[in-house]
Design goal:
- It contains 4 helices and 11 strands.
- β5 and β6 form a beta hairpin.
- It is globular, with a radius of gyration of 40 Å.
Length: 217
């Protein structure tokens, strides 16, 4: 009877040792070899992504795309910064146009830069091309002027060829004639400024926009 008990105990001990040293196929598949990384099933599921969008701060300075530009306008001694958008003319030039203004084709060879609020305020833009005599254009303007003419008018546009002020309709409207060379191309400008309160903001706005002209070859 004692021998039977010893045999049974030995059998149980051997079975237990065999169970400890044996692994299932699933467990073997989980065993990493040297240098191998094993992922635990379900790892990463339900986790938050690493790319987290930063909140937008409305107080941050606006980033302007190349088709936009911030122009400085001096109105009654105060400098204001306003957004302008790039416009391309069929007459082979471009410029930045302030919000509240529009660039439109008027007739062959001419564009007009208009104030949207009151289109009695506008600038006629006439590209003259290369090798044009600006002095002849100025003399023609003076000869056919309909009002009082003042030569040598000071304008806030650098390196102009001439600047002539013409006052018509008993002083109700000022017309400024000027021209400037852009990349070898002469541009003739005729600015119409009625005697209204809006002229205080319209004139400096027109000069700021005209100063951004870029002409092709």
């Amino acid at each position: 009877m004692k021998k039977i008990k010893l045999f049974v105990a030995a059998t149980l001990l051997i079975g237990a040792l065999a169970a400890c040293g044996t692994s299932t196929p699933e467990e073997e598949a989980q065993t990493p070899t040297d240098g191998e990384v094993v992922e635990t099933p379900g790892e990463g599921e339900g986790e938050e992504p690493n790319d987290i969008e930063e909140p937008v701060n409305d107080d941050e300075e606006m980033i302007l795309i190349p088709e936009m530009k911030e122009l400085e306008i001096e109105v009654e001694g105060q400098i204001e910064k306003r957004i302008a958008h790039l416009e391309v003319s069929d007459l082979n030039y471009s410029l930045f146009v302030l919000e509240g203004y529009s660039l439109e084709a008027e007739e062959p060879g001419k564009d007009v830069l208009l104030m949207d609020y009151d289109n009695e305020f506008f600038v006629r833009i006439e590209p003259q091309g290369k090798g044009v005599n600006a002095e002849e254009i100025k003399n023609h303007i003076i000869e056919y002027a309909q009002g009082t003419v003042e030569e040598g008018r000071s304008v806030p546009l650098a390196n102009v060829e001439y600047a002539v002020l013409e006052v018509v309709e008993d002083g109700a409207t000022a017309i400024i004639h000027t021209a400037k060379d852009f990349n070898g191309n002469l541009f003739k400008f005729t600015m119409f400024l009625p005697g209204k309160e809006a002229a205080e903001g319209a004139e400096p706005s027109f000069w700021a926009m005209l100063d951004t002209i870029s002409a092709g070859e």
